[in-house]
Every structure is written in structure tokens, then in C-alpha cells.
């Protein structure tokens, strides 16, 4: 079905008045009303200035207030996707003006006051089309923002025209500020008052963009919005879950959601991303291996959002967050010894340098499925090394980010059935890797350097390290008079000429030659780099790079073969019978992880 979008500029009076047939709703997933005193004052002063200069009369002229993006929901309401701050402020401003106009006894009001009272009423409240009687409880704007006490405050202000003098919420503060501004300008320039009201109702223009579906409206909003954070799928999910809960469970849910949000931020993740990881876990449970990956909102929206209403959803998101708290911050989880295992942390850190996120999905699924098992730590370590071996070899041979997608999705599904799942990756003869390791694609260099470094040290690499070229990238042209620049440049990019190096030391070392940089290498806390700095080698040339190329490629190929062999051995043992505690202890002692 084609998408339908209606765009038709309207005055404030016309747009707000349309709420009598299709009332405005600020949906649950929107953020709370957040306009500041400065924004309120800017709106008012700009409108007043416009009225004084070119508005307030029948002359052509308009003041553009911006767009309002909405769609008509199933209850025939105008659900505001973008513009909720602006439209809420306009309702508050009109209510402040109405309160001022009606403060005078009806018999003492001017004809102008009565006219504008009659104009404002149908823009805020539903009025009887026959009698004209105003229903002050039937307000044309409703806020349903989740767990926001201000919803009732907004309703009370629009109904009564009163705001608590001590209230600190934005609705009350901004309403009082509008009142103060209107009083001030009315006293200073009473002749301008009615021109201002006229301009506000008739010459202040909004551009309502009405979409036929929520998806279309959100897409439009994401395209237009450059003023702040766009609505996330997680905002919508929170609202959907909240609305399904009974009153007793809503408060507890919001507290847990807030806790999840805060913990995710502290772990350099987001709730949105946790939902994304969980999608792959659920797809694995469903044995869904289709390579077309759905959008998060589309996936959870299937079957009327039934996946969101699973009582264990938040529990699973917290579990997934535990994993990323370890990976991203190095945290240790109480009661989970694997989170203290240096080798596992090193494997996860190495995987984190893989050029895309495909590695994350099987790791999440494996952790969620098997973290409570007694042998989890050992098997998790073996699994991570096997995954690292497969991803590394495939990327070295075929440096494409999508080359492993089908294999990863198959692996995801295999994991839920076995803690030693079969990897259906295409076999590669590791003897073919030598040249690819020695002259690797630049996207895999950090992974290679981490593998090398972690063979010589227990702790993680420092957070701020850089790829160091032992022989400098800028060399003197007379250093190799018999070689072309292209040959030298190619050789300098080989793995044999690279080291992981702390950024602060790298700055000190600069772009000098080996003899000048050895001192800084020796000061490094990275074992592989320190070893170069404390070696007896005094010169570093292209032959040195070639020799180190060979040593590194031999070492990495041997390690990749070891990881593959160890995983196959444990898989075979599981096929025969579940390994005993003694078997697993021997595996650990042999250094399988």
C-alpha cells in the first residue's frame, strides 16, 4: 500500500481547533515536556515583535512556528511524533491569555476581549456545536508520557487556569512565565494586546505533516529532526510494555527500566542495543537463519508486539548487559568466575577489534544459554577461541564484512542446541594464510597485534594504544637507494614492522628511527613491545621486517591450529559422553584456553 502524507500549512487557531474532531495526544514513548524559561521567552518575545512590526492586522504576513509531525491512530487521535514541545507551549500560552481575558467581569469586558475568548475556547476545549457551551474538562490536548506526573499537572492547568506557585515542573513554571510575560507587555503597551492575540491565532503558521502510519511519521521525524535526540525504538517499546501492565506493576517496571538505562550507559551500551542483541537470541531460538536482518522495531512489532510482553524480557536484557559490562569496562560479575578469567577477557577484547559486529551475536547467545553451567568458563573460553580462529582466517582470506553472515546465523541457531556447537564455516587450509598474515588487510591488524600481545602477557592492553611502525612511515630517500618508494612503502605496512604501543610513549618516540625509539619501547608495559626495546638488536631494516614476518605468521598459524584442534577435541569428547570435572581440569591444565 502506498504511503500517504498530507501537508497543509495552518494557523494556530485552525490547527488547534482541528482537535475538536481529532484530539491531540502526546504518546507514551515521547520524552517529558522540557522547554526552558529561555525558550518560552523567545517564543513570546518573537511573536510580540512580529505583531508590533508586521502583524496584528488584516495585512498579509505570517510568522512560521515550525512543523508538527503526526499520524491518526486507531482511536482517531492526532498522535504527535514531532512538535510536542511546541504545541504544548502554545496550549499553555493560549490558556494564560484566556485566564487574563476572563479575569474581568463579563459585563465589563470589551468587544475585543469577548471576541478572542470565543476564538480561544474551541482551540483548547471541546465545545458543543449547537449550544456553544464549553466543556472545560474535555481538553483537546492530552499527554500520556510514561511515568510522568506532569500529565495530570498539564490537564489541571488547562482545565482551571491555575498553577501552583511553588511547583517546579516545566508545565507550571512555563505557564506562570507566560502569564508574567503577558501581564508585563499588557501593562507596558496595552494598545498592542489584541493585535498580539490576533497575530498568534491567525498569522502564526504551523506546518502540520500528517502521515498514514506511525512508521511513516517516525521516518519523517528522523529525516527532519536536527534539534535533539530522535525517538528511539526503545522509547516506543517502553511505552508498549508499560501500557500492558496493571497499575501495581507499572511503578516497579519504570524503576527497573531506569536502572537498566543507567547501567547500560555506564557500560557504554544502550537499551536500544540490548534489544538488538536480544533479537538475535530470539531468532536463534526460533531457528531463524534468514540473512535478511529485520529492523528492531519491525521485529518486535510482529504479532502485536507479543515478544515485548514476555515477563522474562527485562531479565534477559540485564543478563546481556552483564556480558557487555565485562567486555566494555572490564567489570567482574559476582558469582561468575569467567568474568575474572584473563584469557577469556583477552579473547573478547581481540574479538572486539573485528571489523563488524557479527561476532557479538553468537557470543551473546552462548552466554545467555549456558552461563549457569558448572563447566561454562572452560567451554566458553574454547568457544571464543574457535570463533576468533574462524573469523580471523575468513577475514584474512576474504576481507569482506558480509562474508561470514550466513555462517554466523547458522552458528547462532546451533548454539541453542549445544554448548559445543558445530561451526559450518567453509574450511580453509591455514597454510594458505602465511602471506595474508604477513601483509594483512589494514582492518585486521589490530586483531593480529592483540593475538601476538596476549600470548606474552596476562593483563589486557592499555585502553589508549596505537599501531606503531618500527621502521618509520616517513623515511629518508637515501636510506634505500636501490629500492623504489612503492616497494619500501609496501614492506613498511607488513605485520613484522608493527607493534602495539601506548599512545603517550608513541608521542614521545615520534617518527624517529629504531635506535632512537628503543628506549621508549623498553619503557612500554606491553610485553611484546618491551621485548623489542630490550633486545640486543641495534638496527631495523627491511630484512628485519621480513624475518619478523615469518616468525609472526608461523606463530599465529600455530595458535589458530591449536584453537581449532582444542575445540574439536572437546566437541568429540562431548559427542562420546559429557566430560567429567577431572576431564575439564586436564583440559584447562593443557592450556586449551
Write a structural description:
This protein has 593 residues and is α/β, with parallel strands linked by helices. It folds into 2 domains: 5-230, no CATH class; 234-427, no CATH class. 55% of the residues lie in helices and 9% in strands. The chain has 25 helices and 11 strands. It has helices at 12-17, 37-53, 84-101, 111-124, 150-160, 170-188, 193-203, 214-224, 233-244, 247-266, 271-285, 296-305, 313-329, 342-351, 360-370, 376-397, 405-415, 434-438, 445-454, 485-492, 503-509, 514-522, 527-533, 542-576, 581-589; strands at 5-7, 10-11, 24-26, 63-72, 78-82, 125-127, 134-139, 141-143, 204-211, 465-469, 498-502. The strands form 3 sheets. Strands 1, 2, 3, 4, 5, 8 and 9 form a 7-stranded mixed β-sheet that branches. Strand 6 and strand 7 form a beta hairpin. Helix 15 (360-370) runs parallel beside helix 17 (405-415) and helix 22 crosses helix 23. The chain is elongated and about 105 Å long. The mean pLDDT is 89.
Key attributes of the depicted protein:
593 residues; alpha/beta; 2 domains; 7-stranded mixed beta sheet; 25 helices; 55% helix
Amino acid at each position: 500500500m502506498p504511503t500517504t502524507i498530507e501537508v497543509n500549512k495552518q494557523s494556530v487557531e485552525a490547527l488547534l481547533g482541528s482537535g475538536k474532531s481529532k484530539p491531540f495526544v502526546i504518546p507514551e514513548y515521547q520524552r517529558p515536556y522540557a522547554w526552558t524559561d529561555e525558550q518560552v521567552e523567545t517564543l513570546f518575545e518573537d511573536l510580540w515583535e512580529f505583531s508590533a512590526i508586521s502583524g496584528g492586522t488584516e495585512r498579509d504576513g505570517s510568522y512560521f512556528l515550525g512543523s508538527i509531525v503526526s499520524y491518526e491512530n486507531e482511536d482517531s487521535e492526532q498522535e504527535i511524533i514531532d512538535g510536542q514541545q511546541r504545541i504544548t507551549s502554545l496550549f499553555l500560552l493560549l490558556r494564560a491569555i484566556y485566564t487574563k481575558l476572563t479575569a474581568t467581569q463579563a459585563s465589563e469586558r470589551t468587544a475585543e476581549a469577548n471576541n478572542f475568548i470565543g476564538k480561544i475556547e474551541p482551540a483548547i476545549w471541546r465545545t458543543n456545536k449547537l449550544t456553544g457551551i464549553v466543556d472545560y474538562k474535555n481538553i483537546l490536548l492530552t499527554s500520556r508520557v510514561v511515568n510522568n506526573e506532569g500529565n495530570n499537572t498539564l490537564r489541571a492547568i488547562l482545565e482551571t487556569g491555575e498553577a501552583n506557585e511553588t511547583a517546579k515542573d516545566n508545565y507550571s513554571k512555563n505557564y506562570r512565565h507566560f502569564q508574567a510575560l503577558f501581564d508585563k507587555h499588557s501593562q507596558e503597551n496595552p494598545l498592542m494586546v489584541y493585535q498580539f492575540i490576533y497575530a498568534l491565532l491567525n498569522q502564526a503558521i504551523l506546518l502540520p505533516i500528517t502521515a498514514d502510519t506511525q512508521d511513516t511519521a517516525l521516518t519523517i521525524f528522523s529525516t527532519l529532526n536536527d534539534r535533539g535526540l530522535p525517538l528511539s525504538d526503545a522509547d516506543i517499546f517502553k511505552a508498549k510494555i508499560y501500557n500492558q501492565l496493571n497499575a501495581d506493576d507499572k511503578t516497579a517496571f519504570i524503576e527497573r527500566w531506569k536502572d537498566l538505562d543507567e547501567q547500560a550507559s555506564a557500560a557504554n551500551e544502550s537499551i536500544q542495543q540490548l534489544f538488538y542483541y536480544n533479537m538475535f537470541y530470539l531468532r536463534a531460538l526460533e531457528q531463524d537463519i534468514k540473512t535478511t536482518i529485520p529492523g528492531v522495531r519491525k521485529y518486535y512489532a510482529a504479532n502485536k508486539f507479543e515478544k515485548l510482553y514476555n515477563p522474562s524480557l527485562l531479565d534477559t536484557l540485564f543478563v546481556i548487559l552483564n556480558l557487555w559490562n565485562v567486555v566494555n569496562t572490564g567489570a567482574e560479575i559476582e558469582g561468575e568466575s569467567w568474568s575474572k578469567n584473563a584469557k577469556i577477557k583477552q579473547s573478547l577484547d581481540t574479538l572486539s577489534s573485528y571489523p563488524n559486529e557479527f561476532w557479538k551475536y553468537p557470543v551473546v547467545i552462548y552466554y545467555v544459554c549456558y552461563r549457569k553451567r558448572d563447566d561454562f568458563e572452560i567451554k566458553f573460553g574454547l568457544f571464543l577461541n574457535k570463533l576468533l580462529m574462524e573469523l580471523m582466517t575468513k577475514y584474512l582470506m576474504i576481507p569482506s564484512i558480509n562474508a561470514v553472515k550466513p555462517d554466523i546465523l547458522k552458528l547462532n541457531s546451533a548454539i541453542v542446541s549445544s554448548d559445543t556447537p558445530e561451526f559450518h564455516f567453509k574450511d580453509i587450509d591455514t597454510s594458505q594464510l602465511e602471506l595474508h598474515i604477513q601483509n594483512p588487510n589494514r582492518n585486521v591488524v589490530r586483531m593480529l597485534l592483540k593475538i601476538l600481545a596476549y600470548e606474552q602477557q596476562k593483563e589486557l592492553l592499555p585502553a589508549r594504544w596505537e599501531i606503531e611502525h618500527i621502521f618509520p612511515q616517513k623515511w629518508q630517500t637515501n636510506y634505500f637507494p636501490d629500492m623504489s618508494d612503492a616497494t619500501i612503502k609496501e614492506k613498511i605496512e607488513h605485520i613484522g614492522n608493527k607493534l602495539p604501543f601506548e599512545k603517550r610513549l608513541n608521542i614521545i618516540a615520534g617518527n624517529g628511527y629504531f635506535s632512537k625509539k628503543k628506549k621508549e619501547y623498553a619503557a612500554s608495559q606491553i610485553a611484546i613491545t618491551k621485548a623489542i626495546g630490550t633486545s640486543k638488536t641495534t638496527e631495523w631494516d627491511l630484512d628485519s621486517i621480513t624475518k619478523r614476518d615469518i616468525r609472526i605468521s608461523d606463530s599465529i598459524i600455530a595458535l589458530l591450529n591449536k584453537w581449532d584442534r582444542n575445540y574439536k577435541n572437546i566437541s568429540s569428547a562431548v559427542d562420546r559422553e559429557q566430560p567429567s570435572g577431572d576431564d575439564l581440569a586436564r583440559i584447562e591444565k593443557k592450556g586449551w584456553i
